[in-house]
Write a structure and sequence with these properties.
There is one protein chain. This protein is mainly β and about 130 residues long. It is about 0% helix and about 50% strand. It contains no helices and eleven strands. Strands 2, 4, 5, 6, 9, 10 and 11 form a seven-stranded mixed beta sheet that branches. Strands 1-3-8-7 form a four-stranded antiparallel beta sheet, with no helix packed on it. The radius of gyration is 13 Å and the shape is globular.
Amino acid sequence: QVQLVESGGGLVQAGGSLRVSCAASGGTFSSYVMGWFRQAPGKEREFVAAISYGGGRIYYADSVKGRFTISRDNAKRTVYLQMNSLKPEDTAVYYCAADTEWHGDSWSSAQYDMDYWGKGTLVTVSS
């Protein structure tokens, strides 16, 4: 079993930056692909970014490409999401998730296959 705990959410003005983190316990962290997903109020949860086991492969949703950066530190068992140039439409609860498989170019539907989920951290971007 893998437990995931997100942190770092908060309130930020549009154009600002924020970094959220996800700490993992249990299991072998480097054996898992890590992903970030988000759910805005009244909307379905959507994919944001994913990083492979050692960080060699990364995939972003088009909506965040060029603004968000995913990274991981396997020694610290933590995955990060650096968010820059934030927009009000980035307001959402951000969830990290772990899976044993890399989903190639099919990350938009990967949320149904992820093995473990955190409880989320709220990011609010004010205009």
